Amino acid sequence: MKVIYPGSFDPPTYGHLDIIQRLSSMFDEVIVALLVNGSKEPLFTLEERIEMIRSDVEGHDLKNVTIKTFDGLMVNFAKEEDTTIIARGLRGMADYEYEKNIARVNGSLYEGLETVFLLSSPKYSFISSSVVKEVASFGGDISSFVSDDVEIKMKEKYKY
């Protein structure tokens, strides 16, 4: 079975990596899918985000994980990849309400498409890419939120 784990991963956090590792143990193939979104201005380029995720995945020897990009609707990407399963991580109820509605829209656009939700591990439930960027922008310690490689790239971006 194949699953798609979509996101912007700007930057990838330990919360993302935890979900990827758990999906890797549950599915035969995991596609980490980075959305190419021209309306958003990410901190990191698409290539930088791919490199950071690749480094995290290779550092944990997750051989059944591939990294791909897509633009447009997730349902079209799922059809192209011939899969009917999307995975999303949930930190709390606010995430659930948002993701539940997206899952229903996706299911109405692609019959048979299922979204599975994984609860964040408690130690990562407060981490988001937005929080990491904010802490890093003020020179705060993000070492417990992201891998060493991501931390180095964050320091380069914020020039400290």
From TrEMBL:
Pathway(s) annotated for this protein in UniProt: Cofactor biosynthesis; coenzyme A biosynthesis; CoA from (R)-pantothenate: step 4/5
One Gene Ontology term, aspect cellular component: cytoplasm
Primary location group: cytoplasm
Site (Transition state stabilizer): H16
Annotated positions binding substrate: S8, K40, M74, R88
GO BP term, pick one: coenzyme A biosynthetic process
Keyword ATP-binding: yes
InterPro entries for the chain: Cyt_trans-like (IPR004821), PPAT (IPR001980), Rossmann-like_a/b/a_fold (IPR014729)
TM region positions: none
EC number: 2.7.7.3
Keyword tags: ATP-binding, Coenzyme A biosynthesis, Cytoplasm, Magnesium, Nucleotide-binding, Nucleotidyltransferase, Transferase
Cofactor(s), names only, from the UniProt record: Mg(2+)
Catalytic activity entry: (R)-4'-phosphopantetheine + ATP + H(+) = 3'-dephospho-CoA + diphosphate
Family note: Belongs to the bacterial CoaD family.
Annotated function: Reversibly transfers an adenylyl group from ATP to 4'-phosphopantetheine, yielding dephospho-CoA (dPCoA) and pyrophosphate.
Cited HAMAP family: PPAT_bact
Protein name, UniProt field: Phosphopantetheine adenylyltransferase
Highest classification ranks of the organism: Bacteria, Bacillati, Bacillota, Tissierellia, Tissierellales
